[in-house]
Amino acid sequence: MAASSLHLLPLVAALLLAIPSRAHAEHASTADLKELTAITQSLMDALANGKKEVWDAALADDAVVIDEFGRTQQRQEAVDGITGLPPGLSGEIKLLNPKAQTYGDAAVFTADADEYETVFGQKLHILYRMTNTFVRQDGRWKLAAMHTVTVPTTPPALDVAGLKLDDYPGVYRYAPERAFTVASDGKGLSFTTRPGRPATRLLPLARDVFMDDGVEKNLFLFRRDASGRVVELIERRKFNDLSLKREK
């Protein structure tokens, strides 16, 4: 077991003790949901204004925070990381669709975190989804674990000059019975993974570089041979590449 995993053992033990055996989830009371939402919103507000004391008061002693990049922080590291936004940056995060279930003295809280940020005059909009685990200690809810992911959203459209859509349509195969079929309607590209399945749009980012407009928003990289003909498709998914060879 890795050393980082050993740090999680006290937290796991505390959570197991907080949840009665054969516990059944119950919808959180209106008061509990309101309190959990308020705590989480205050944590989001503190990211911008740099109020460490908010995080220090809200986190349990063995709290673990996993951010949208997959980085894991223990309690003190998370608190120390609250420094506020630097000059030139501003923004706010508002919670949407908060929900909670309780398991005795533990609660699981989920919400969307809708962020609007301004970076030296440029406007950014990011949507996160979080799952927070709280434990009730001395009559107060304390955050034991926070896990946040970035929700893939359709990026702004780009006008790619000189894009030749006719270069790409074809069948790209990665196994005897598995292939992607890329098609063009004259205005844009789309692909299907199997006959009869709905087509997914491919959004151009640059020459030979596209992003799928499905749930995952993977990159599609078309590769050419020495003559300039497209001969391969690389689907870059979850930081890994799947190679698909174009059929003659």
What can you see in these coordinates?
The protein has two domains: 3-150, Nuclear Transport Factor 2, Chain: A (Roll); 165-246, Lipocalin (Beta Barrel), CATH 2.40.128.50. Helix content is 19%, strand content 48%. The chain has helices at 3-6, 9-18, 30-49, 52-58, 75-80; strands spanning 26-27, 59-66, 72-74, 89-103, 106-119, 122-137, 140-150, 170-175, 178-184, 189-192, 200-206, 209-212, 219-224, 230-237, 240-246. A hairpin with a 2-residue loop joins strand 5 and strand 6. The radius of gyration is 23 Å and the shape is elongated. It starts with a helix and ends with a strand.
Distance between the termini: 49 Å
Gyration radius, in Å: 23 Å
What is the CATH first-level class name of the largest domain? Answer: Alpha Beta
Quickly count the domains: 2
Secondary-structure map with pairings?
Layout: H1 3-6, H2 9-18, E1 26-27, H3 30-49, H4 52-58, E2 59-66, E3 72-74, H5 75-80, E4 89-103, E5 106-119, E6 122-137, E7 140-150, E8 170-175, E9 178-184, E10 189-192, E11 200-206, E12 209-212, E13 219-224, E14 230-237, E15 240-246
Parallel strand pairs: 2-7
Antiparallel strand pairs: 1-4, 2-3, 4-5, 5-6, 6-7, 8-9, 8-15, 9-10, 10-11, 11-12, 12-13, 13-14, 14-15
Helix pairs in contact: 3-4
